[in-house]
Structure formats: structure tokens, C-alpha cells
């Protein structure tokens, strides 16, 4: 099973700063991911949370569940949540960090990801397609 975690404020995609994050809603993105997953026969579990603790609980549960890979957009937590980083560091499965925007092209406080050192790879700057690229790559990794 591939677990997709959307962090804070991503529930408002489509409405929230559309010039930065695009016009697609979270449910548009989730539908595209579910389409790809079902075509490839991959089970997908998708969650969105505005709360750091809830995201950590979900990551911890991945320890005991049948999770083969994680795709995570930690949103603003990317830049300062050592707690989410530590939770991810416990896992020994592919983890892809995703951002809709190119965080390195934006304000300086977004240039640092405390999450990147514990993930397999990062995809940023392709809008909703960042998630699709991440899922395609996860499927490739799992098939290898
Ligand atoms: C984001 C980038 C973060 O800096 C920001 O706080 C977000 C979204 C992105 O997907 O581009 O909420 O993770």
C-alpha cells in the first residue's frame, strides 16, 4: 500500500494562493492519483491533516501497517518539524517529499527542508504534477 500524506492548508488547494499553488483542488489531485494507482493495481491510502501530531501518528502507524512507500507534502512543516522528520527517519521504505511550488525559488525561509535528509528523493515545482511524478516513481521503485 502507498500512503499519501498531505500536510496543513493543502485542504484549501484551488482557493489558496492559486497563483502559487494552482487551481486544482485537493480532491482533483487525489482523483488523478487514484486513477493512476488503480490502473497500475496499486493500493492507495490518502490522508490530509492540519495537525503535526496527527501526521506523526499516521507515520507511526505505517510501522505496523502494510505500507510499502510514502508520498508526503509536509507543507509548512517541511521547514521546521523535526518531529515529522524523526518519525519518517524510523521507516525503511521509499519516501518521496513533494511540493507543488519550487520552494528554492521562493522566500528564504522555504529554502530549507528539514525533511529532505531522511527521504529517498524530493519533487518540487511542478504543481499538481509533482504528486503524479512522485507516484509514478514510487510505482517504478516498488516494481524493481
Ligand atoms: C508547499 C510549500 C511550503 O513552503 C508551503 O508552506 C506549503 C506548500 C508546496 O507544496 O509547495 O504549504 O509544501
From TrEMBL:
Annotated site, Transition state stabilizer, chain positions: 16
| PROSITE patterns referenced in this protein's UniProt entry, alphabetically | DEHYDROQUINASE_II
Gene3D superfamilies in UniProt = Dehydroquinase, class II
Does the record's keyword annotation contain Plastid? no
For this protein, what is the EC number?
4.2.1.10
MF terms (GO), sorted A to Z: 3-dehydroquinate dehydratase activity
Q: Which residues form the active site?
A: 21, 99
Q: Can you tell me which residues bind substrate?
A: 73, 79, 86, 100-101, 110
Per UniProt, what is the name of the gene that codes for the protein in this document?
Answer: aroQ
Q: What is this protein called?
A: 3-dehydroquinate dehydratase
Q: Does the keyword Lyase apply?
A: yes
Organism this protein belongs to: Orenia metallireducens
Task: Recall the taxonomic lineage recorded for the source organism.
Answer: Bacteria, Bacillati, Bacillota, Clostridia, Halanaerobiales
Amino acid at each position: 500500500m502507498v500512503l499519501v500524506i498531505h500536510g496543513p492548508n493543502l485542504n484549501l488547494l484551488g482557493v489558496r494562493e492559486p497563483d502559487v499553488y494552482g487551481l486544482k483542488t485537493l480532491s482533483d489531485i487525489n482523483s488523478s492519483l487514484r486513477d493512476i494507482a488503480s490502473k497500475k493495481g496499486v493500493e492507495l491510502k490518502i490522508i490530509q491533516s492540519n495537525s503535526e501530531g496527527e501526521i506523526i501518528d499516521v507515520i507511526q502507524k505505517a510501522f505496523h501497517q502494510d505500507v510499502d512507500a510514502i508520498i508526503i507534502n509536509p507543507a509548512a512543516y517541511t521547514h521546521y518539524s523535526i518531529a515529522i522528520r524523526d518519525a519518517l527517519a524510523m521507516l525503511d521504505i521509499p519516501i518521496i517529499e513533494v511540493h507543488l511550488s519550487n520552494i528554492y525559488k521562493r522566500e528564504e525561509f522555504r529554502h530549507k527542508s528539514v525533511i529532505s535528509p531522511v527521504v529517498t528523493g524530493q519533487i518540487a515545482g511542478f504543481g499538481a504534477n509533482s504528486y503524479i511524478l512522485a507516484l509514478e516513481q514510487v510505482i517504478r521503485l516498488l516494481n524493481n
